[in-house]
Write a structure and sequence with these properties.
The structure is a homodimer.
Chain A: E1 2-6, H1 10-21, E2 25-30, H2 36-45, E3 49-53, H3 54-60, E4 63-66, H4 73-77, E5 89-92, E6 97-98, E7 106-107, H5 115-122, E8 127-131, H6 137-140, E9 152-156, H7 159-172, E10 178-180, H8 187-204, E11 210-214
Parallel strand pairs in A: 1-2, 1-4, 2-3, 4-5, 5-8, 9-10
Antiparallel strand pairs in A: 6-7, 8-9
C-alpha cells in the first residue's frame, strides 16, 4: 500500500520504518521537500521509501499517519488543500501538548473538546481514527516491548475506517488488545491520558509503560 | 479509630460500612444533623456508627474520608472552621464533575489545576491524600470484585500521610497495588482519568472496571 507518514520525529520514523519492513511504499512528509531528516530516512530505508512535502505525501498516500506535533496538525493536514484528505483514512497520533511552561506539559484543548475532534471538524470528509497517541514510539509498532497484557485505544466516527485501523494495529503492528472508545470524542479521554502517561514517565524515569483496562 | 465519612451517597455508605465492619467508630456527616439517609445508616450499622453535621463529623474524626460531590467539597470541608482539619489526614475521593450538560460529565477544573490541589490550598495544614476517586464505590473497599491485577492511585504532598493511607488501602481495603503519583498535582491526571472511566462505563454498560499501569 502507498502510505503517507507526516512528520520526521521519533513517532514518524518508528511508524515509517515498520511500514517499510512490512513491504509498503512510504513517503515521509515534511515542511519542505528537502528536509534533511526525511531525506536521510528515505535514503537509508531503501527503494520503497521516499520523501517530500506534507502535501506531496498526502497526495501519495492511500492511508495517512499524522505524526506531527499537535500544535501544527491542522495546518499540516490542510497543506494538500481543503479536500486533499477526502475519503482517506487518517490515523491521528498527535497530541494537543503545550510545552510553553516546560515539563510536565499541559493540553491546549481538553475536557469538552479535543484535537481529534478539531481535526475531524476541519476535514469533515476525511476518515479520522485517533489511535497510538498514548504509547511510546517504539512500542507503537512493537507492543511486546512491554511485558504483560496492555491496550491500544482507538476512536473515530467512521466504523469501517476503525475496522481497517484495528486490522492494521493487530496484523501489522502486533497489538493483541484494541479497545474501541466509540466516536471521535473519545479523543478527549485518550489525549488527557497522555498527561497521566507523562506523569508515570517522570516518576519511573522510563517511557516503557502502558495502560490495561481491566474489566 | 474514630473516623469521619463526609457524604451519604454510594461512596460514603460503601466506605462507612467497610470501616464499621473493620471495628472502627464512624460518624457519617451530612449537611444537617437530622439527615435521613445518614440517620438510617447509623441506625442499621450498629453501636459504633453515628451521624451528625459535616462539622460534627470532622471534629469527631481522627481521619476524614471526603465522599461528597466535588462541587461542594471545599465548602463541606470548611464547615468545621478554617482550622478544623489542621493536622488531619483527609482521603479525598471527590471528583470535579460537572453534570450541567448531562452525560458524559465534564470537569469544572482540569489540566493546569485540580480539585485535589484546590482543597490542599484551601486547607494548607490538612494532609490531603487523593485516592479511590477512580474506582466504583463497591470496588473501593473490595478490589477483588474485579478480577486480575489492577491499581489504586494515590497522590499527596505529605509523605507520611501517604504512607498511612497506603497502609489503609492495602491492609483495610485489600488493595494489592497502590501506585504513587507523587505530589497532590497528580490529582490532575487521576481526576481526568474519571472521564475515561465514565466513557468505558458508557460503552460496556458496567462500572466494574479499573486501570492497570503496565510497566
Amino acid at each position: 500500500m502507498k502510505i503517507a507518514v507526516l512528520g520526521t520525529g521519533g513517532v514518524g520514523v518508528a511508524i515509517a520504518d515498520k511500514l517499510i519492513a512490512l513491504g509498503h511504499h512510504v513517503m515521509m512528509g515534511a515542511r519542505v521537500a528537502r528536509n534533511e531528516k526525511a531525506g536521510e530516512w528515505a535514503k537509508s530505508a531503501g527503494g520503497n521509501a521516499s520523501n517530500g512535502t506534507f502535501a506531496d505525501a498526502i497526495h501519495f498516500g492511500e492511508l495517512v499517519f499524522n505524526c506531527v506535533l499537535g500544535a501544527v496538525a491542522i495546518e499540516v493536514l490542510g497543506s494538500a488543500g481543503a479536500n486533499g484528505l477526502d475519503g482517506k483514512i487518517v490515523i491521528d497520533i498527535s497530541n494537543p501538548l503545550d510545552f510553553s511552561k516546560g515539563m510536565p506539559p499541559s493540553l491546549f484543548v481538553c475536557n469538552t473538546d479535543s484535537l481529534g475532534e478539531m481535526i475531524q471538524r476541519a476535514f469533515p470528509k476525511a476518515r479520522i481514527v485517533k489511535s497510538l497517541n498514548t504509547i511510546a514510539a517504539p512500542v507503537m509498532v512493537n507492543p511486546a516491548m512491554i511485558q504483560g497484557d496492555h491496550d491500544v485505544l482507538i476512536c473515530g466516527d467512521d466504523a469501517s475506517a476503525k475496522a481497517e485501523v484495528t486490522d492494521i494495529l493487530k496484523n501489522w503492528f502486533g497489538w493483541k488488545s484494541v479497545v474501541d472508545l466509540g466516536d471521535i470524542s473519545g479523543s478527549r479521554v485518550t489525549e488527557a491520558w497522555v498527561l497521566f502517561w507523562v506523569r508515570i514517565m517522570m516518576i519511573t524515569g522510563s517511557p516503557m509503560h502502558n495502560i490495561k483496562v481491566v474489566r
